[in-house]
Design brief:
The protein is α+β, with helices and mostly antiparallel strands and about 130 residues long. The protein has a domain at about 80-125. The chain has helices at about 80-95, 105-115, 125; strands at about 5-10, 10-15, 20, 40, 50-55.
């Protein structure tokens, strides 16, 4: 059984729908998402590192129906996955449409987007 750092490989569509959190054990060769039709990836587009899925420990059985969470950023290079980038672009577009804000206010809001979409020490203040 192939695992990386104890993690199995996840297959996730570019819109963030989990296809499988255990590509090594689930035989699903889907190239496109059944929910939205987007392409499916199992590696970071930036560094080609496998996307972390479920955590595996040899000789330990875990009975759970929960899938691994969909990660926002690559564990290896720290860059956002396509679904995270799409969320940030959509938020930036919405902010840009707010005519009542100055350019400086829009920039400040855009700078807070990463802190709003993932948990960081600044998330509470950004919200």
């Amino acid at each position: 059984m192939i695992t990386i750092d104890g993690f199995r490989t996840a297959k996730i569509c570019s819109n963030g729908h989990m296809i499988t959190d255990s590509a090594e054990t689930i035989n699903d060769n889907s190239k496109f998402c059944k929910t939205c039709g987007a392409s499916v990836i199992s590696k970071c587009p930036h560094c080609q590192s496998r996307i972390h899925g479920s955590y595996h420990v040899d000789h330990v059985v875990c009975i759970s129906s929960e899938e691994a969470p969909v990660p926002a950023y690559c564990h290896n290079c720290g860059k956002p996955y396509p679904w995270t980038e799409a969320t940030m672009r959509a938020a930036e577009h919405i902010i840009d449409m707010l005519d009542e804000l100055t350019a400086e206010q829009k920039k400040q809001l855009v700078d807070f987007i990463p802190d709003i979409i993932v948990e960081t020490p600044q998330s509470r203040y950004a919200a």
